[in-house]
Design brief:
Layout lengths: L3 E7 L3 H12 L5 E8 L5 H6 L6 E6 L5 H10 L5 E4 L5 E2 L3 H8 L5 E11 L5 E6 L6 E3 L1 H11 L10 E4 H7 L10 H9 L4 E13 L6 H14 L6 H30 L1
Parallel strand pairs: 1-2, 1-4, 2-3, 6-10
Antiparallel strand pairs: 4-9, 5-10, 6-7, 6-9, 8-10
Helix pairs in contact: 5-9, 8-9
Pfam family, one: Glycos_transf_2
Organism: Nocardia acididurans
Protein name: Glycosyltransferase
Length: about 260
């Protein structure tokens, strides 16, 4: 019996679900796949049931859950020691699961995360070998936390690039739904209290550029990490992170001004 469970939490995900599921089911690794349809009103359920694969279990919520709760329910349905969460629209590259399961054979590693590709709206590759600055190889929680605060959560890419241990997920209480954008990176940080973080140099997943996250949300996220882990996240990384957000805010303001001027012409 294999050791990896794949969770696909889906809500009105008909547009990208089929390609995501094919990228999962074409992996050679022995997996179980839990697709949790979060009360979708589009063709998500039909697409989910179109795959005649004994590894796939489709479950439906009759009432939609908040995103964090839905992901937690999906993980609660798994039966194996390792888990990855693959959101509709994310793509697994060939051999991804085999490489990550091999890394997680080291019981001292709590979480592994791989580099990723950025895709445009048509699914064409915009950039590859993206993410994980200064985090390749085995890293302790102090290095991980400081990098998260300094560089921001977007450097960790899609949830599909990450594999973690179900036992550690349960120990930290799963996903915290607020703030929504850094939810997955918040989970990575908290689980890394139970072992090392391992950054894989291989590019194993792809996702569509999620766009700019609300800066206030990111500010709350990094200051919460500072408050919860003061022994790991000092003042300097937080100041660096705050400066990064201030620069981003200034860039957005300039872009809005240029757009407003162009509209008046």
């Amino acid at each position: 019996m294999g050791i990896l469970s794949v969770c696909v939490p889906a809500r009105d995900a008909g547009r990208g679900l089929e390609r995501t599921m094919r990228s999962i089911l074409e992996q050679d690794t022995d997996i179980e796949v839990i697709l949790l349809d979060n009360a979708s009103t589009d063709e998500t359920g039909t697409i989910a049931k179109s795959f005649a694969d004994v590894r796939l279990r489709v479950v439906r919520n009759e009432v939609p859950l908040p995103e964090g709760e839905n992901r937690n329910r999906a993980v609660s349905l798994t039966t194996r020691r390792l888990v990855t969460v693959v959101c509709p629209g994310d793509i697994l590259l060939p051999g991804a699961f085999d490489q990550q399961v091999t890394v997680m054979a080291d019981n001292g590693i709590a979480v592994c995360c791989a580099k990723f590709q950025l895709l445009d709206e048509q699914g064409q590759v915009l950039a590859t070998e993206v993410g994980l600055p200064n985090l390749l190889g085995q890293r302790d929680i102090r290095t991980l936390m400081r990098t998260i605060v300094r560089r921001g959560p977007a450097e960790f890419g899609p949830t599909a690039a990450t594999v973690f241990r179900r036992a550690d997920f349960d120990r930290v209480g799963g996903y915290r739904g607020d703030p929504a954008f850094p939810m997955h990176v918040d989970l990575i940080a908290r689980m890394s209290a139970f072992g090392s973080f391992y950054g894989q140099p291989e590019t194993l997943a792809a996702w569509h550029d999620p766009g700019a996250a609300p800066l206030a949300q990111l500010w709350r996220f990094q200051h919460r990490l500072r408050a919860e882990y003061p022994e790991l996240v000092g003042r300097a990384p937080v100041l660096t992170g705050d400066l990064r957000l201030a620069v981003a805010a200034a860039d957005r303001l300039r872009a809005r001004i240029r757009s407003a001027r162009a509209a008046r012409r």
